[in-house]
């Protein structure tokens, strides 16, 4: 076996192991990574050599360490996602950045986000599924949380728990703010 084929085989096995360990289907990985289902399948079977960009997208979706992908160690005791490696998305609204802290397999069940609001930033959400609740703890600044017709202002250290199965929004008040948001689906 050549060094190239050994690396290729280990890469294929590592990606498949990471996907199955997280309980994700090929379709789920394709949605999370932006890599087609057929390409993910070909890579896992060792039939295709992925580009660095494709590998990066897959490792981010699977939340595995890009550099350690070929490492022989399996199932680390402590999984670390470095701050710069955590996926960041723009919020539905304006002046909001959302860093995803929860693992990909938690989507739709128990999601954790680090939400940064610029001055005047607003996170505006349509209703989530029935019984969904959000738990928001303010780390910096001042915000106002609205769920349905009720609003509450939060200061540093305050936590708001509210129903998210109705229209809701979170707005920075008097400057930038930062919060941890946990979305708990029923």
Q: N- to C-terminal separation?
A: 50 Å
Count, helices: 4
Radius of gyration (CA) equals 20 Å
Average pLDDT works out at 86
What is the number of domains?
2
List the helices and strands and how they pair.
Elements: H1 3-21, H2 26-33, H3 37-44, H4 52-62, E1 88-90, E2 93-100, E3 110-125, E4 133-140, E5 143-147, E6 150-154, E7 159-163, E8 168-172, E9 177-184
Antiparallel strand pairs: 1-2, 2-3, 3-8, 3-9, 4-7, 4-9, 5-6, 5-8
Helix pairs in contact: 2-3, 2-4
Descriptive report:
This protein is an alpha+beta fold and 186 residues long. It has 2 domains: 3-62, Orthogonal Bundle (434 Repressor (Amino-terminal Domain)); 86-184, Sandwich (Jelly Rolls). Helix content is 25%, strand content 34%. The chain contains 4 helices and 9 strands, in the order H-H-H-H-E-E-E-E-E-E-E-E-E. The protein has helices spanning 3-21, 26-33, 37-44, 52-62; strands at 88-90, 93-100, 110-125, 133-140, 143-147, 150-154, 159-163, 168-172, 177-184. Strands 1, 2, 3, 4, 5, 6, 7, 8 and 9 form a 9-stranded antiparallel β-sheet that branches. Strand 5 (143-147) and strand 6 (150-154) form a beta hairpin. Helix 2 crosses helix 3. The radius of gyration is 20 Å and the shape is elongated. The N and C termini lie far apart (50 Å).
